Amino acid sequence: MAFELAYAFCFLLLLLHLPFPTTAQTNKNIPLGSSLTALDNSAFWASPSGEFAFGFQEIGRNGFLLAIWFNKIPERTIVWSANGNNLVAKGSKVELTADGQFRLNDAATGKQIWVADSASTGVSYAAMLDTGNFVLANPSSINLWESFDQPTDTILPFQTLNQTSTLLARYTATNYSKGRFHFALQPDGDLLLYTTHFPLDSANTIYWSTDTTGSGYQVIFNQSGSIYLTARNRSILHMISNSTVSTQDLYQRATLDYDGVFRHYVYPTSTGSSAAGWLKAWTSLSFIPPNICMTILQEKGGGACGYNSICRHDQGTICQCPPGYSFINLDDVLKGCKKNFISQSCDAASPETDHFYFQEMQNTDWPKSEYEKFEVVTEDWCRQACLADCFCAVANFRNSQCWLKGSPLLNGRVDPINGVTGLVKIRKENSAMGPGGGYSKKKDNSTLIVVGSVLLGSSGFLNFLLLLTIYLVVSRIYYRKAKVSQPYLVMNLKYFAYEELEEATNGFKEQLGHGGFATVFKGVLGADKGKCVAVKRLDSMVKESEWEFKAEMSAISKTNHRNLVQLLGYCNEGEHRMLVYEFMSNGSLAGFLFGESRPNWYQRREIALGIARGLLYLHEECSSQIIHCDIKPQNILLDNSFTARISDFGLAKLLKMDQTHTTTRMRGTRGYLAPEWFKNMPITGKVDVYSYGIMLLEIICCRRNFEEEAEDEDQMVLADWAYDCYEQKKVHLLLQNDDEAMEDIKKLEKYVMIAMWCIQEDPSLRPTSKKLTMMLEGTMEVSIPPDPSSFTSSIQ
């Protein structure tokens, strides 16, 4: 009777268009007595098609994770795990015993780490299904246990979440222990995203909800790739992600990522007919909430990025530290930030008001951190109030209102439209470093001299020896202090010895590129799990190399953005000046654009937007405004997912926050130089916008800005030709052999218009990097551009 009811229920599910019932597949059954041993990443059971695998994955050097993963893509992305909180040692075994128990034992301790609770002793075999579901089944092929019923941080097509089902975000991108965020369908029917009182699992703050209390019944991820919440009568209450691409063409998953965002990802299959044009990487199709930085607002807890931090939304969650602060743990940025200086003394006799200054941050706020509020005051009054208050870490000012905020700071975020000025209080570098005036090195030296003076009363010879000793000690202290205080060495960066980088690059063997003052080599850091890096060695015989070394260190060490190449460390040993960057596996944009195969239109649009966002960060959101001065395809690198990263800051010019322009000698590359360089005009961020405009045309057309051997003389200068095509309403001529772009002709025309605005001869007519980004994103209209009157002055 039970057997017949089970099949009747399966038939009913099919009629209701639910995901297919998950019964085991007999052609890949795993019999009782089978086992896997954690020796390397080859210990697994594959599904019949090989799409998924169940087995062991080594997580760094920390141990082995029993998991399910996509097995036909290089990333081998994990979608389920059994022991994220307790990795096991090499030699550990998962076993389907003769009595039907399925358990994992740790080889190091001999203890049972995990067991599948099948609620029955009737298990006769296991199976890894092509849906990504691992099951334990009885002789009648009825599943007694399923991984689909015990999700971790991911759901897959054909999978459902029932009431009381929960997804738990992992701790970090590479740490599979439980994290700080939950995605849960409550017993009352409401679907929620919420933070926890970490490390406890209890709910803290709800930051997204479907508001379906009393009606929500099941979350379904269907075969078409759509994810939605249904009522009991199967009506759709809330569409979470509406996909139009079949799961036959794209691998799909929905994951609650470690940053608290629930994302729907796709990855092209090798056989899918509709997969052409998609990047060979996991791409986010949709995500909730739209901006987690603005969504999480906690009374208790650090917000989206942890205490004393700043959250910024830019194609994802970006966590940063305020000036004067640094991450507690670079491998876990959600832990927040710590001060790099000693807090202000509360001693009334020594208030230390002269030892602090304010770093201004526009549109930056820490809601719920205030302990005092003043109204109808000036910004200067607000600064002085915070300076005089030893509890004040940050002051926020807007519209004659002043908020004083104390540590730890909560809910830090950048909101481009809130108009709040953030004033971060930082101790001056040369001020006393301790409470009550501090116990500084200067005080150390004074104490030493006083002690020496007392001793000088004994005898002439002894006095001479003591005086000489004191002189040598004090001189050495000041020498060390001067040596350490060089501006390009006082940084929170890893220092590499020359021998270490020589070994990492195999004697500087594999060259990646060469510039005016430097050569870049590929390296592998043996001490960092074989991590690939790019080592930029500045030419020691060139005078400008020392200046370039300082400039690049000063510029990029202050940055942290998804669209900038990250500086990992440096070497400054004798004549050796080297910078160590993260390795970009897909080379430069120049090689990508001008190579044999043309990148697809979607990729080019994403790259163009990424570069613009990087410029916006450099010009307006960085702690010190930076003009790059050499934007061109050769200085844009592409990571493994083809995300654009701005690199090569050797020519960068830093501006203080209150500066709008500067004067400097000519820098950059002919063909991308703004007219200001030739007219001895003040230099602003608009020179980067001009260079970007020329490069945007190259991205659109997949050709260089100047081609002397062009068949048609009118097409030699790309900017001239592009404007002629636009003016004659023939922009399609720019891309005669690009069918994908031709189908998107309206956007193509819009991008050409944006480029024309960027390369206006008059800098005041060019958009700022912020307006440029908004035009590319579609949040600002693009008006008809005037004729850029002089293209050739900077190209010849």
UniProtKB/TrEMBL annotation:
Its EC number is 2.7.11.1. Gene3D superfamilies: Bulb-type lectin domain, Phosphorylase Kinase, domain 1, Transferase(Phosphotransferase) domain 1. It is a single-pass type I membrane protein. Keywords: ATP-binding, Disulfide bond, EGF-like domain, Glycoprotein, Kinase, Lectin, Membrane, Nucleotide-binding, Receptor, Serine/threonine-protein kinase, Signal, Transferase, Transmembrane, Transmembrane helix. It catalyses: L-threonyl-[protein] + ATP = O-phospho-L-threonyl-[protein] + ADP + H(+); L-seryl-[protein] + ATP = O-phospho-L-seryl-[protein] + ADP + H(+). SUPFAM superfamilies: alpha-D-mannose-specific plant lectins, Protein kinase-like (PK-like). GO terms for molecular function: ATP binding; carbohydrate binding; protein serine/threonine kinase activity. Residues 506-780 form the Protein kinase domain. Residues 346-427 form the Apple domain. CDD domains: B_lectin, PAN_AP_plant, STKc_IRAK. GO terms for cellular component: membrane. Residues 1-24 form the signal peptide. Pfam families: B_lectin, PAN_2, Pkinase. It comes from the Eukaryota. InterPro entries: Bulb-type_lectin_dom, Bulb-type_lectin_dom_sf, G-type_lectin_kinases/EP1-like, Kinase-like_dom_sf, Pan_app, Prot_kinase_dom, Protein_kinase_ATP_BS, Ser/Thr_kinase_AS. ATP binds at K536. Residues 30-149 form the Bulb-type lectin domain. The chain crosses the membrane at residues 448-474. Belongs to the protein kinase superfamily. Ser/Thr protein kinase family. This is Receptor-like serine/threonine-protein kinase. It comes from Prunus avium (Cherry).
